[in-house]
Amino acid sequence: MPLISPSLLASDFANLQRDIEMVNDSSADWFHIDVMDGVFVPNISFGMPVIAAIAKHAKKPLDVHLMIVQPERYIEEFAKLGAEIITVHYEASTHMHRTLAQIKEAGCKAGVVLNPSTPVSVLEDILCECHMVLLMSVNPGYGGQKFIPQTIRKVEKLKAMITEQNLDTLIEIDGGVNDKTGKQLVDAGADVLVAGSYVFGAKDPKETIKGLKSL
User: Fold this and answer.
1) How far apart are CA 24 and CA 134, in angstroms?
2) How high is the pLDDT of residue 103?
3) What is the b/e burial string over 162-178, where b = at least 16 CB atoms within 10 angstroms of the residue's CB?
4) What's the CATH code of the domain at 78?
């Protein structure tokens, strides 16, 4: 079964604690937290105080996705706030090997994120340093976007690289995930599905999460 990481970017910010408790009580595995700076992506999301508040109520690991320039400046702070997994964009970090080491030294699991236009081949020499690779299946910056079909082939290529290097690196997908695309992704080799509007916009979010878990 895939791991499910509901994206709090799609939650009701006026009822954030309620939505956190819903995820706590569901079959979801992680909380996905998108951090945007308005520079690397054209949007701004959670700041440090909000993440601290989320960590206070969350009973499952915080999967923190940094969509920011120079992410290395904030690794230690996000770790102190309660992040258990930190993923940083390949396109935003000049010295990725060093950044991954920094995440691990801070006590977190480290991952790399690739935008839709970035090929998986760039990871060949650092894949062994990654606990997880997050493939964006939409262009980062906004929720509710349409799934990019080419992601399926990208997952297959990445899975082949992981197998060839005899690694246990997880493949996470973020963007446009629902029951249909989720099934295609899991069949292609994805291990973790991030779902935002599909979960929080559902009539019964817990059942929707349960459905994704059964893919």
Assistant:
1) 23
2) 98
3) beeeeeebbbbbbbbbb
4) 3.20.20.70
Structural tokens at position 94:
């000049």
Question: What is the crossing angle of helices 179-188 and 151-164, to 10°?
Answer: 30
Tokens of 108: 């977190």
Which of the following is catalytic: 34, 37, 63, 191?
34
Q: Domain range holding 94?
A: 3-213
Known active-site residue 19: no
Domain count, the chain: 1
Cα-based distances in Å from 153 to 40, 90, 170, 186, 198 = 26, 19, 16, 12, 22
Q: What is the mean pLDDT of each run of 10 residues along the chain (215 residues)?
A: 96 96 98 94 88 96 96 96 97 95 98 97 97 96 84 98 98 96 98 96 98 97
Q: What is the pTM of this model?
A: 0.96
User: What pLDDT was estimated at residue 47?
Assistant: 86
Q: Which of 19, 37, 63, 174 is catalytic?
A: 174
Active site residue 34: yes
